[in-house]
Every structure is written in structure tokens, then in C-alpha cells.
Amino acid sequence: MSRIREVNGGGAQVVEAYERRSIERRSGEIQSKAGSGNGSIIAPRLSIDESLLIDAKSLFIGSKIGEGAHGKVYEGRFGERIVAIKVLHRGSTSDERSVLENRFAREVNMMSKVKHENLVKFIGACKDPLMAIVTELLPGMSLRKFLFSIRPNKLELPLALSFALDIARAMECLHANGIIHRDLKPDNLLLTADQKSVKLADFGLAREETVTEMMTAETGTYRWMAPEVNAFFSFSYAV
């Protein structure tokens, strides 16, 4: 619900209505799939290749640099390397833990699958005693913070076009590998140290098109969704 609180005034009512419709739609899908019995679903448990895992003892977690709905991001160290460490919530019930562990495994598998200069580089992951994803640490800020920092000025056209190309190349790489990001927004675009390039981060809401070719509006950031998503139409990577 944290994203709903970000919207002020009458807009909050719109988001709350959207949230209710999304939950109702998802609940209906779950019930229709559950069939007889107690209505619970045992989702296939996703696994993570052992080669992608690193020992949590080799990590040093420093100060918090970000926080989202699914976890917190810290500056840290892996060996001699300065890294970003995203620590994800585990959940408070067995069902919630199962869902979050599967989401974690899916994010790790997708991040390890793609490599591109405009995607944040995946380094490794930990399963125990904490669920964490380790990536390169970009010394620059998010595109959102950068745009606020230059106000009242605007991006110069050459830099705006350069950023647009970076984003397009990152998305092209994901789509070529059957991945739909589903949460493209300035907060998830991180600037490099020279502030001349951006990299796409946060695969927490991403899905593989090979698993679900047509998506529905189950999640995302309301203010950055396409009209097709807000209208609860099915959609693919083209959106």
C-alpha cells in the first residue's frame, strides 16, 4: 500500500479502486485454478543454480541507500568490491514465504540470464540466512533524482536522446531474452558516474514471456502504467 500513499488528493481514490480491482481479479484467477479442496494452491517451487549463489559470510552490509515494497537496498562489500545488496522480505506466513521465495528465485534467474551495458550487472545471490541479490553499485543517482536536481532546467536534447537510446537498448535486450520488465520508471533507471548513461535495474516485477505470453495488470507502478494495463486488458512486451 506504500505506493497508494504517494498519490495525493482525489488521485488516491483512483489508485485504491485500481488496487481493489487488481486484487479481486487475482483472487478470482486463484479460485478458478484451485478447484476442489480447501482452495489453496501449491505453486511449483523455483530453483536457483548453485553457481549463482554466494556465501553470505563474504558480504559486508553497510548503510541503507534505498527501500521499496519488496525489500531494502544497502551499500556493501563483496570481497574487495563495493556492491549494492538488495535484501528482500521473507514474509510472515508459510504461503507468503513460498510466494516471496519464488519471486526471489525468478528475479535471480532472470538477472543472471541477461548481460548488457545498459542493465545493472548481476554478481550473485544469497538464500540463507537472508534472501539477497548482489549487483554492481552505480555511484550516480536515479534518473528521477537527477531530473529533480537540475530543476528548473531541463535535460539538454543530446543527453535526453542518449538516455532514451540507453533505455531502448536495455529493453530490447530483455525482450530478445523473453523478459518483460513491467516496472520501467525513472526510479529504476540509474545513472553512471559520469551522468552520461543510464542502466535499468530492479527485476522484482519482471516476468518471462515464455511462461506467460499475455500479461494482466497484477502489479506495477500506477503512474507509469500504459493505458492497456490500467484498463485490465491483456498485454505483451509490446506495451
TrEMBL record:
At the top level, the lineage of the source is Eukaryota
Per the UniProt entry, what species is this protein from, by scientific name? Linum tenue
> Any idea which UniProt keywords this protein has?
ATP-binding, Kinase, Nucleotide-binding, Serine/threonine-protein kinase, Transferase
Could you give a GO molecular-function term held by this entry? protein serine/threonine kinase activity
What SUPFAM superfamilies does its record include?
Protein kinase-like (PK-like)
- An example Pfam family from this entry, by short name, is PK_Tyr_Ser-Thr
Q: What is this protein called?
A: Protein kinase domain-containing protein
Locate the coiled-coil region(s) and give their ranges: none
Annotated Protein kinase domain residues: 59-239
Could you tell me what reaction this enzyme catalyses?
A: L-seryl-[protein] + ATP = O-phospho-L-seryl-[protein] + ADP + H(+); L-threonyl-[protein] + ATP = O-phospho-L-threonyl-[protein] + ADP + H(+)
**Family note:** Belongs to the protein kinase superfamily.
Q: Which residues bind ATP?
A: 86
